[in-house]
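My current task is to audit a protein record that another person submitted. I need someone to confirm that the token line plausibly describes how this chain folds. Take the sequence as given and treat only the tokens as open to question. This is what I was given:
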Amino acid sequence: GGRSPSMAFWGPRGVGSPTLARLIAQDLKRPFYTLSAISSGVKDVREVIEQAGGSGLFSRSAVLFIDEIHRFSKAQQDSLLGAVEKGTITLIGATTENPSFEVIGALLSRCQVYILEALTQEDLTALLLRAMATDAQLKERPIRLESTEALMRASGGDARRLLNTFELCVKAAGTGEVTITDALV
């Protein structure tokens, strides 16, 4: 219906929280802003709220994604309350920590909490195959996946780590055909 409550994504790193938030904003046809709790403060939050300017509960407000929201102090989280309550922004916060302990109660009570799970081996394999078929550099190389156990183990269910490790293996293999093996990883 073009509406979405504020929400918190709780799960391990590398499962695609920023991508999921961006897709939600895109599907809702809303402006998308992103902040990292590691490098942003109250001033940054206020600037985004001012730029967003929407009003009304579940209106066509902007979506604000805050990565690592558990790292925001109480004061920083408090700075979001009015805008979330008024509907100026739809907040999507991502955290690897239990939000019940790390996000202030007043903010958490205005959010739906979604638990995201680590990617499965099937998910990661599909991601590898898609990268090999669509990435500009990878699709130009003949790459064969002979064994991926070490690659999957090294990723720990983290898509970003998987793709970075895969790219390192492809580069380490030199020119020509690349055969991904546990020994290469």
